[in-house]
Every structure is written in structure tokens, then in C-alpha cells.
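Q: How do we represent a protein-ligand complex in a form that can be generated cell by cell?
A: Start from the inputs.
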Amino acid sequence: MISPRERLIVALDVSSSVEAQEIVSSLGDSVRTYKVGMQLYTAEGPQIVRELVASGKKIFLDLKYHDIPNTVAAAVREAAQLGVSMLTVHASGGTKMLQVATDAARGSRYAPQVLAVTVLTSMNAEDLKQTGVPGSLADLVLHLASLALAAGCDGVVSSAHEVRNLRARLGNAFLAVTPGVRPAGAAHGDQARVVTPAEAIAAGATHIVVGRPITGAPNPAAAVESALRDMEKAELAVGQNK
Ligand code: C5P
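Then emit the C-alpha cells for the protein with cytidine-5'-monophosphate bound:
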């Protein structure tokens, strides 16, 4: 069973190390894992990752690798060298790319977990059709998730709305990281379809990614505690949800 604190990933969607470190120090020991995505990584490079890892934080490196297998494997090895705990690849890169990514991760000293992005949560049915992909969004998510797990990925990134179906169809033996989470009572911002931390866990998520509702809160530490309490409630309700 994973503790609520282990389940929470706070997104550092800022453009400088100074801002990132301000958030991290304001949250202190209450947050163990941070997501570094393409904004902060593009602005500051690997040094911010090294600094956070050196200070004892776990890093979810969300750069969504999608390239030829050789290039992705090489990038995964570099990410592993940085000491990240989790990283993302696009499931649509295909079996070969996913296999070499997971092999590269497992063959490295720190063996980060490899998570596959199925369909971006910003995509709707119409967007999908425009890209030339036939069929429904739910079917594509399920198809790509099973492809990724068969290729050896440790889990998937998907919206909480898809997790329930993935658990029903693919079982419990994989990680499911869910963004688009809004603590109960928080402003929805630009998110139309959001879930609370408790709802995400009840649906089968193992981890939740929360950005602005925590980093932009008047009291970020209080927002963390409220998200943790909310997840505890869900765990009590659903029991041993991995
Ligand atoms: O919206 P919020 O600030 O909580 O977003 C945190 C992270 O979750 C962002 O870095 C974004 O990559 C991801 N996200 C997502 N899908 C959404 C909302 C956010 O992938 N619907």
C-alpha cells in the first residue's frame, strides 16, 4: 500500500530554478516527489534536476520522449544518470521504442520507472479525428496502455476518467499517474473535467499530479495537507487500492 504522501506529485511548472526552489522550500518535508516538465527543463536544463535529487527529492521527469528507439534509449539512460525516479515516453512511439526505453531504464543504476502517455488529456474526440486516428478516444487509450504494458512499461499516465476502465480491463499490476486533479473546493482554472484527489484514488490512480492548485495557493503547505487528507479518505473507503 502506498502512503498518500508517496502518491502526491507536485508539478514545478515554472520557468526558473529560483521559482522552483522557492516552491520546494515552502513545502519542506511535506512533499517528496516533484514533476519537472518541459518548461522548467527547457529553461534550466538538467542542473535543476540534479539539485533537487541531491536535496533528497524524488523527480518525475515528464519530457514525454517520442523518437526513434535508439534516440529514446539514449535519452532514458541520460535521465537515469540524473537520478530521476520516474520518466515519461509516448506509447504511440510503438513497441520497439517502448521496449528499448524500459530496457535502458532497468539496465541503469537508479532504474527509473517508465510511464507511458497514452492520449494527451487535452485531446477530445474531434482532435483525435483531425490527426487521422479512427475510433473512440477510450478505445485508443486502452489499446495504447495495453501496448505499453506488454512492452514492459511500469505504468501509464492518464486522466482519472480513463483509469477506472484501464483497471477493469488491464488489472491492478501497473502504476497509473493522473493529472487534472483539483483539491475539493479549489478553483477549476482552465480545466473543464477535473477530479478531486479522493476521486482519482477511488478510480484506481496510484499517483496524482497537482500543479497550480498547490503551487498557486495562498498557503501551498495547507493545500498539500488538504490533498493528503482527501486521499486518506478515499483509501479508507476503497481499502487496498495499490
Ligand atoms: O493543472 P495543473 O497545474 O494541476 O497541472 C499539473 C500538470 O499536470 C501539468 O504539468 C500538466 O502537464 C499536467 N496536466 C495534464 N492534463 C490535464 C491537466 C494537467 O496532463 N488535464
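Residues 11, 13, 37, 121, 179-180, 191, 209-213 surround cytidine-5'-monophosphate (CB under 6 Å). The domain at 8-241 is CATH 3.20.20.70 (TIM Barrel).
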